Amino acid sequence: MPIRPIDVCSADGRSMPIWLKSARSCRTFPLDFALSSPHNRVDMASQTNASLPENQQLGTYRIVKKISSGGFSIVYLAQDENGQSVAIKEYMPASLAQRKPGEFAPYVAPENLNTYRIGLKCFFEEGRALASIYHPNIVRVLNFFRANDTVYMVMHYESGRSLQEHVLRNRSKEQKDVLSERFIRRVFAQVMNGLREVHSNRLLHLDVKPANVYLRMDGTPILLDFGAARQTLQRDHSKTYPMYTPGFAAPELYKRDAELGPWTDVYSIGACIYACMSGLPPQESDQRLKDDKMPQVLKAFRGLYSNQLISMVERCLRLNSLERPQTVFAVQKELLNSVPERPEFTLAERTGARVRHFRERVTRFMKDHNITWF
Questions:
Q1: For 355, phi and psi rounded to 5 degrees?
Q2: CA nearest 187: which of 156, 215, 158?
Q3: Of the candidates 109, 141, 156, which is a domain's last residue?
Q4: Among 19, 16, 14, which Cα is nearest to 4's?
Q5: Which whole number is the average pLDDT over 317-321?
Q6: Distance between CA atoms of residues 301 and 278, nearest Å
Q7: Percent of the chain whose pLDDT exceeds 90
């Protein structure tokens, strides 16, 4: 049964169906994109605002320390009144608000105030929507409240690290496949469980990337940082800040009035799996429309990963949304297929794949660092 639209706030304060919501912006860049090659890096809106001081009381919570920050928000480790650790995400768009050390409420210039309030409202709505979802593979929102002229989202705190960190750590090792096929199938089959729950609640994630997949200490994944609320902060193009992540964003996110749906998140899932295979993000979708290199790049993984997995990633990454799997369940069914026990390829094929993969990584490294042979 098709999923019906859910209303979200638009740039003019009215409601609009999330499925028909367009990415109303010129090209924008990621908040915390670190899984990229140097030539893909761009200047981005970084968090320049002062964080709340340690031991500061925030309602019934006590701030322990800042965990992380991006252009959109600041995340703190805190403790509730029972001494339980929680993570608190503070709405603090660096391009719209300013807060100096020792201050609590941000200063927002009059010309930015309307845009700031729209984002604040949608951040609050994001928290309310997530608080109604209870699933082991989705970040658990415990509370959300207003204070200091902004909004705070209180989440269950988990020990672990992001999939992005895990990929980067394994990328530095001298192994041909960055992450094993068994690991990829296990983790993303569980990510699919969470994403199916999101879609069944008539929501889209719209910002699935390795940085937003968090691995608990036992290896089970959690989906973080839903990006749908951010899509509304695009009324004033001069004030817009990162809304999606190049390489992981489907081509329809680059267009005005494009129809979004589960297929949009499916593209991002394919991009995440590719990043786990290669240690790098795929070619940006808007660049692929001009010169698509991904089909040839995926062929280089033959012998390192099964044909079935490579084929699934290729279909998830198709530029035409109608040619992709239309539901997360369709992708999950393929992921749950068992990894072939017997090698699909001869020793010569596997050796050739490793040589091609190594040569490609050396060539890319040399290009990124402007190294030439003399």
A1: -65, -45
A2: 215
A3: 156
A4: 19
A5: 97
A6: 9
A7: 54
Cβ-count burial 290-312 (b if 16+ within 10 Å, e if not): eeeebeebbebbbbbbbeebbeb
* Whether the Cβ atoms of residue 25 and residue 240 lie closer than 8 Å to each other: yes
∠ CA 244-236-121 to the nearest 5 degrees?
A: 70
Task: Looking at the structure, tell me whether residues 241 and 344 fall in a common domain.
Answer: yes
Q: What digits encode the pLDDT tens for the residues 49-60?
A: 999 999 999 999
Query: Which residue type does 14 have?
Result: R
Q: Provide the H-helix boundaries in the chain.
A: 110-131, 163-171, 181-200, 262-278, 285-288, 294-299, 307-316, 328-335, 347-368
Residues 167 and 252 in one domain: yes
- Is 252 within 8 Å of 261 (Cβ atoms)? no
Same domain, 244 and 350: yes
> What's the one-letter identity of residue 354?
R
**CATH of residue 52:** 3.30.200.20
Q: Which of 101, 127, 156 is the last residue of a domain?
A: 156
Cβ atoms of residues 119 and 149 within 8 Å = no
Residue with tokens 């040399």: 366
Question: Same domain for 143 and 202?
Answer: no
Q: How many domains does the chain contain in total?
A: 2
pTM score, two decimals? Answer: 0.74
| Domain enclosing residue 108, as ranges | 46-156
